[in-house]
Automatic annotation (TrEMBL):
It holds the Pfam family Flavin_Reduct. InterPro entries: Flavin_Rdtase-like_dom (IPR002563), Split_barrel_FMN-bd (IPR012349). It comes from the Bacteria. Residues 18-173 form the Flavin reductase like domain. This is Flavin reductase. GO terms for molecular function: FMN binding; oxidoreductase activity, acting on the CH-NH group of donors, NAD or NADP as acceptor.
Amino acid sequence: MFYRPADGHPLPHNPFNAIVTPRPIGWISTQDADGTPNLAPYSFFNGVAYVPPQVMFASTEAKDDQDNTKDSVANIRETGVFCVNIVESAARDAMNTSSAAYPKGTDEFAKAGITAERCETIDCPRVGGAPASLECKVTQIVKIEGVSNYVVFGEVTGVHMRDDTIVNGRFDITTFQPLSRLGYRDYTVIKDLFQLSRPDD
């Protein structure tokens, strides 16, 4: 089948998210100018550069109590910093709890039973005990097509890795099994790895 997104699709549910999978989940922690913490998962998330290390996430919805966006973007506009926390399989329920559209000023760390720890290079909370956390200073917030679509880019200024994730000198994702987003309400857990070498290696 073929369809033009501008014309809609003939299926009961939008297939776009199911096509672009699996997607890593960036569990984005921020705080507002008054110091109230916020925590929310974003599956439009990825690394975008090695040197300097940079990441991005996209926010595609808005809340009535924010300026055409969600708390994460609003807080980053105020403070210029955010932290990306990697979601392990064991944290799936806490991650899901933090995804609700709570009123502005709600502490999702508390709602989800997550311990907040302070970052080292930025004034921002991070998820205590996460397999890894990336402290970021925002470089750009780009408005893209769509009413509430914003892409946030940040330079990584500090990296936390839980000690048990480092095996034989490598960050080993099998020690915690990262959670990934699929289409609809589906998720998957990464357990199995294989290697491929480039032809010119």
